[in-house]
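Local shape tokens:
==================
===
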Amino acid sequence: MHYFYEIFDLVKEYCKTQMTEVAFNLWIKDIEPVELTPEKVILNVTNEFKQDIVSKKYKELLETGFEGVLGFPVEVEIQSKEFKSRREELAFPPVPEPPVMLEPGEYVYTFDTFIVGSSNKFAHAAAMAVATHDIRNYNPLFIHGDSGLGKTHLLFAIMNEVKRRKPEAVVAYVKGEQFTNELIAAIRNQTTENFREKYRKVDYLLVDDIQFIAGRDSTQEEFFHTFNALYEAGKQIVLVSDRPPKEIKTLEDRLRNRFESGLMADIQPADFETRIAIVQRKADLLKMEMPNEVAEYIASNLKSNIRQLEGAVKNIKANSLIYENKPITIMMAQNAIRDILNDSRPIPVTISKIITEVSRTFNISEQDIKGKKRAANISRARQVAMYVVKDITQMSTEAIGEEFGGRDHSTVVYSLSQTEKMMKTDSRLREIIEDITKNVKDN
């Protein structure tokens, strides 16, 4: 039974990152695990009122958490019966404390836990230099590489090292999308001075996914002045992106020039030896006995994404726990890798992401994009959204029409042809669509 408590503790840690502390303490914290099978999870709450609330509001969140930990979906059932927890009776080592949370949903990473190889050695050295020395030639430091290669790890390693060496230093970490959303809120609430104070009085500004500010005029304007204020004051700026500045098509030239004026460091997919080391390190953190041949098998079959390597190890760990610490085998690795490689993003999720990205880019509400309004700016955004949906999902025009307020086949065909026609003569629109597509695929 103790393995179920261990799994559920990990699920609760996930839930904690997805909701407020008050809600977590009220509805999730005291839930007791009752039974776990390969198809179903039974959880117990203290009364019928809680059973009703958790079933209606948090069942889907719990199922997502279990799928993330176990590596496969299970149905969650909430009951409210008299139940005596056996957690204290069971003799098993306590689950290690989860890493300290620096930001909602972001765990501590350090330079010590970053596996260095030939593919990331330069980026690691540059990040370490920025965190340990005041080097003006490295300002800004711009790290770029595909998703899942460790860029965010380096950002948090810089933050943690700076805080260890200079507790008095003011360090701000923000994602490009979050910067945009905060600026919009500040403009709406007439608190832009507070917003500027927050980001222009720091000693270190660390920006993740900086590519998401591209194409947003007011955000780029604000970031330009923030960048200048910090740079002229000798403060350190570190930017991370999935591609170099020259490939962010809708980035303003003045920002592109500033991003390229410091040190550029790219991260490439890890080589075979580094991938093995990553698998073994993750296994060590999860207290797993990982046979060398299994680690080599995983590293041989997952080559482009560190998150996939770590996901495979977590999947194997979960399956081992379910079957009472069953020995780790190549077959378990094969199943884990198959689950990861077959985990394609559901089309409804993809469509939602596309519409959200188009909405932010064109500053048009998602409701208007899917609605009936025919203003020129709304129609243009809607046509672009349809084009990107077709390009990424390859859905039929009939199905796309249904997603956009029940429009008929001919309307979608016209929108696609108009967008293709405009892209041939409007380089700006073409760049915007390329950035939207890239952001959706990499997000």
About this structure: The chain is about 55% helix and 10% strand. The first helix runs from residue 2 to 17. Strands lie at 32-36, 40-44, 75-79, 101-103, 106-107, 141-144, 171-175, 204-208, 236-241, 263-266. Residues 85-107 have pLDDT under 50 and may be disordered.
